[in-house]
């Protein structure tokens, strides 16, 4: 059946006529009646990632309890200080001080700290600007914009705490949960399906970006704290970097969309960039806004079973490996990676991991001290070099010199598509 829903991207080419692609998400091949392998596997992968992410999140309930307790203590102390300053000494909230063993001394002087007045007004202006831009550009109601901002704050708190405890940022849970909430908010509005999907993606991305940026920022400040860097200097540096990114990020997207138009064409049969997360975002947006449930029955049944299995495996990993069993924890399968593979529509990611992991393994085994000094620097350089090379290739593509003519080769490129 799957070969009946594939696309022959090189039909008529004597050399590549037998190549069948399942990359396209055209409606003809992306529906519940004639699902392509990519479309069928998309739903189990997405649902399993959501369930696994939330299971990981819920298992940190003790940490979140401590976090909210600390937030309440801080809010109460702030309220008491404010009322005392206003001469309302009788209006106070009784709160227990933090135990001395739990107090972490801050090495920064008072003048090095970032004050609320430095970022508070800018935050308020950003929220107002966000509501105005989304309303004018995409016809998003102010209420939905504010809901997206609230979700961004909520998931930012969870993401920061979870990243600090487990070193894993639950962006999958944040983004998909925000899409589900916003999907429920748009159900009763009777909007056109395309408009509802657009607002769902925009609102979900706003919440996800807020959570991701917050966890990254706190991670940077954590490194600065360990290095005894002035928080104010870090704040200024982050602000300057953000200003540059606001200009550079859209420019990069415009560059790549100009060089490779297929990345914004859902009906493209082939594309140099597989963009797997795009498929996951689109799948959730379609599922929560489409009047007709778009998931094939067999895919839906398997998605539920696979998600339950993934959640159970997370619970087993947290509680089963104790005592003499702890040594086997390293061999416990990561179902999140398996679910991610369902969403990925290309093998290049696994190939890249193998190409990097195998030499790194033998290098670390043969010369661990040398690997400790240079290993991560080499890996970081290769990743950065690939990114810079991609920008150069995009410029070459626009200039018409990307290859194979007049320069370049099609060796090992299916369909001579390089």
UniProtKB/TrEMBL annotation:
InterPro entries: OPT, YSL-like. The chain crosses the membrane at residues 39-59, 116-138, 144-166, 235-256, 299-316, 337-361, 373-396. It is found in: Membrane. One of its GO terms (molecular function) is oligopeptide transmembrane transporter activity. It comes from the Eukaryota. The keyword Manganese does not apply. GO terms for cellular component: fungal-type vacuole membrane. Keywords: Membrane, Transmembrane, Transmembrane helix, Transport. It is a multi-pass membrane protein. It holds the Pfam family OPT. Its main location: membrane. Belongs to the oligopeptide OPT transporter family. This is Oligopeptide transporter. It comes from Aureobasidium pullulans (Black yeast). The lineage of its organism: Eukaryota, Fungi, Dikarya, Ascomycota, Pezizomycotina.
